[in-house]
UniProtKB/TrEMBL annotation:
High-level lineage: Bacteria, Bacillati, Actinomycetota, Actinomycetes, Pseudonocardiales
A Pfam entry, by short name: PTS-HPr
Name of the protein: Phosphocarrier protein HPr
Limits of the HPr domain: 1-88
Major place of residence: cytoplasm
Organism this protein belongs to: Amycolatopsis azurea DSM 43854
């Protein structure tokens, strides 16, 4: 199962607008994408509520994972968003 560790770049973390952007992109992937804070339980990245409940703040490390055909590309796409300041 591909996974990637990235640092949350948005100044407000994965809250509100950044969470909505990430959730929309995750839901559009051909496989289910999960995200977890280091040491925490993974949640479905396609849900804004799950992302906000994760409480991942600016500078926190998260682990993005997916399984199935197209998982590597899905993980890369979501990792790129999380590593971008979506509030800029």
């Amino acid at each position: 199962m591909p996974e990637k560790r990235v640092t949350v770049a948005s100044k407000v973390g994965l809250h509100a607008r950044p969470a909505a952007t990430v959730a929309k992109a995750a839901a559009a992937q051909p496989v289910a994408v999960n995200i977890a804070k280091a040491g925490g339980d993974p949640v479905a990245a396609g849900s804004v509520l799950n992302l906000m409940t994760l409480a991942a703040g600016f500078g926190d490390e998260v682990i993005i994972s997916a399984e199935g055909e197209g998982a590597e590309a899905a993980v890369e796409a979501i990792a790129e968003l999380v590593a971008t300041d979506l509030d800029a």
